[in-house]
């Protein structure tokens, strides 16, 4: 007899349980339209705006009533949910995408925790978390509250690294004019602890145009394994023009890796000898990987399972020099975050009534 409960509920179920744990923080909170609407009505700061927009009621205080009337054009009520416009009045369009749900004070800390502490948030920095939240939600003193939360995050304080000035020498590479033309590739590790499946390294690659990071957990940094990663990169992103590596690592100067590059018609360039810092983009991604992994490893979590979430967080971080995140440059839009899905279906038709 084939026992489903004992024969099937093994590795796949263990994997599923770990994936469920990753998003458990989102599932534990009730962020339905109804619950948020009720909290908005009870909020000490925004409840009076809801009363005014819904019933035309003004505060008894003349000063408060005047202040509310001056600020009310920036808000609107849609299906009983209170929204704020993130677009200046002169540029405002009657489009629901220009409006964000207003968060009452009692849920602000929970939302910041979801965007910062969760595996998809990756314990990102202050500006990264501000960029994520301000696009989706509105609440008073948003930047200050996010900054205070992250500065008091125990995991972030433990993982802080002393930054060393590593000014790289000038090395000229051809400037790509579109994504996935030129990549840098390197090996990160060994990582302690080794993952349950025996992986202790991460093969990382970064696109020099968009700064998009690709990474794959690997057991050993040998030429066969790394060549396989290169082939899977091509399967995902297409054949690129150039790949840049150092020439100190045997896996990149081997005949096998060179042959794979030749067969795929990829130009393989090397950094100068004793100049590993010339792989600056990869080095920076390694530092970020270490920073993002540390809090979860300290909590006893499997870093390999969290790697895709950490990559999502890194690729969703706005690059200071480009002004956009790698995800935006590659896909032409910002990604949706799990929490925003609670409102999408309930209010998707509201924009038609605004036009």
From TrEMBL:
One of its GO terms (molecular function) is nucleic acid binding. It comes from the Eukaryota. InterPro entries: Integrase_cat-core, Integrase_H2C2, Retrovirus_Pol_polyprotein, RNaseH-like_sf, RNaseH_sf. One of its GO terms (biological process) is DNA integration. Residues 175-334 form the Integrase catalytic domain. This is Integrase catalytic domain-containing protein.
């Amino acid at each position: 007899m084939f026992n489903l409960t004992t024969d099937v509920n093994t590795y796949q179920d263990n994997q599923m349980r770990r994936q469920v744990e990753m998003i458990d923080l989102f599932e534990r909170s009730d962020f339905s339209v109804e619950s948020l609407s009720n909290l908005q009505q009870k909020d000490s700061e925004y409840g009076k705006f809801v009363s005014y927009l819904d019933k035309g009621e003004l505060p008894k205080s003349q000063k408060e009533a005047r202040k509310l009337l001056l600020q009310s054009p920036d808000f609107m009520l849609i299906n009983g949910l209170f929204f704020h416009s993130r677009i200046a009045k002169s540029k405002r369009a009657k489009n629901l995408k220009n409006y964000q749900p207003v968060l009452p004070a009692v849920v602000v800390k929970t939302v910041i925790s979801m965007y910062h502490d969760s595996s998809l948030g990756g314990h990102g920095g202050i500006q990264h978390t501000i960029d994520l939240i301000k696009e989706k939600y509105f609440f008073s003193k948003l930047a200050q509250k996010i900054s205070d939360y992250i500065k008091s995050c125990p995991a972030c304080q433990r993982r802080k690294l002393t930054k060393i000035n590593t000014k790289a020498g000038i090395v000229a590479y051809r400037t790509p004019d579109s994504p996935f033309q030129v990549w840098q590739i390197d090996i990160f590790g060994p990582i302690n602890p080794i993952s349950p499946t025996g992986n202790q390294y991460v093969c990382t690659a970064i696109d020099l145009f968009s700064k998009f990071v690709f990474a794959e957990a690997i057991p050993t940094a040998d030429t066969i394994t790394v060549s396989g990663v290169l082939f899977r990169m091509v399967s995902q992103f297409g054949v690129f023009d150039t790949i840049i590596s150092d020439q100190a690592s045997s896996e990149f100067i081997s005949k096998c890796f060179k042959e794979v590059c030749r067969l795929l018609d990829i130009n393989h360039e090397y950094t100068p000898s004793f100049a590993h810092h010339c792989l600056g983009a990869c080095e920076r991604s390694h530092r970020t990987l270490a920073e993002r992994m540390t809090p979860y490893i300290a909590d006893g979590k499997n870093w390999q399972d969290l790697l895709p979430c950490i990559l999502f967080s890194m690729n969703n971080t706005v690059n200071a020099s480009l002004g956009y995140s790698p995800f935006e440059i590659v896909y032409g839009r910002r990604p949706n975050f799990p929490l925003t899905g609670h409102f999408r279906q309930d209010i998707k038709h509201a924009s038609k009534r605004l036009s």
